[in-house]
Amino acid sequence: MGNFEIYAKYERLKKLDTNFNRALLINIFALSLVLLCCDLKYEVSDDFVMSTIVSGAYGKGRNPHLIFSNIFLGYILLPFYKIFPRISWYFVMHIAVVFISSTTVAFFLIERLERMKAIMLLVFLILFFSNDMYILVQFTKTAMFAVMAGSLLFLDALFYGKSKRRMITGGALCVVGTWIRYSVIYMAGGFLILILIYEGFRIIRGTTDKGILRKKFSKIVISGFVLIGFAYGSNEINSYIYRNNDDYAFFNNYRAARSRIVDYVDYGYDEFFGEVSELLDKRADGLSDDELYGNEWAVRIDSLEEAMKRLDSLGLFGIGKERERVVINVEQAPPDEDGSEYNRALRLNPSSDLLSEYLETCE
Q1: Which residues of the chain have pLDDT under 50?
Q2: CA neighbours within 13 Å on the CB side: how many for 119?
Q3: pTM
Q4: Looking at the DSSP assignment, which residues form a beta bridge with residue 137?
Q5: How many other C-beta atoms can be found within 10 angstroms of the C-beta atom of residue 116?
Q6: Which of 17, 203, 230, 316 is the most exposed place for a label (fewest CB within 10 A)?
Q7: How many C-beta atoms surround the C-beta of residue 202 within 10 A?
Q8: Are 48 and 70 in contact (CB under 8 A)?
Q9: Is the dihedral of CA 267, 272, 278, 283 positive or negative?
């Protein structure tokens, strides 16, 4: 091999030594360690439910109505389930979005900081957040990672005159984050406003020509409204589809009430249920794991069933025909394998077409 060939190979390798490739390699290495050493799973049952809906395991077939995420996301996932039905593409989607978000942040830091400082900070961040990013997957966290990472890339391109491709990539990542969970924009918004204020003052201090300043701010405002319009428009289309679909209209009407109960939005939760939590903790004291997840678990499930029965007798879930449009049950994830959920549903609900459909999923 001649000197010229060695030099040519060196030049080719040198071209690969870019900030993006460094960020990519760091995240590939981190993800590989997680896949080899950790047990990845869903943190909450909401993700499990959405994955069963889109895969067809729950219901009569594959369904893009992900309930908590945008229907656009469901339609994107459907072809993958059709080609490779045995792969949990919903789970893969979360891992992919988090990986892209983490690579985006790594690229941003490597570009802004000295190489060694950036790598040390990245190692710390990945180690600190790996549990939330990959090991315990949860759609709200995935959405937040995507929105914040996409915003960094979008604002960096917008305020520092970077390429349109960077701006579009960042904007697309933001929109995907809002598709996964739209409400995260309210949490991310506070941090983004601080960045906007800082960058706005920086531009004002560094620009003396009012014409140039007006042009810069016009571009920033227009680009920002376009991104917000895409996110808001996608959410409105999703809401419109649910409102105008009779199969989901009832659920959509009661979704806010349901979330206030199970997501603990009401500040009075501790006031009403704090005592119950204390009593359950006392019952668990001194019990072994076998006892806690054996007889004690059965007692708690039976208690929940009795509570649902009493609430139903008070008319909380409706009366007459209205009641037939609701199915209540005490479930656990993963589901019981002995038919307990099936029998509980029969005991807790009046006969209805909706109940018959639900029972098919319990078989």
Answers
A1: none
A2: 9
A3: 0.70
A4: 42
A5: 8
A6: 17
A7: 11
A8: no
A9: negative
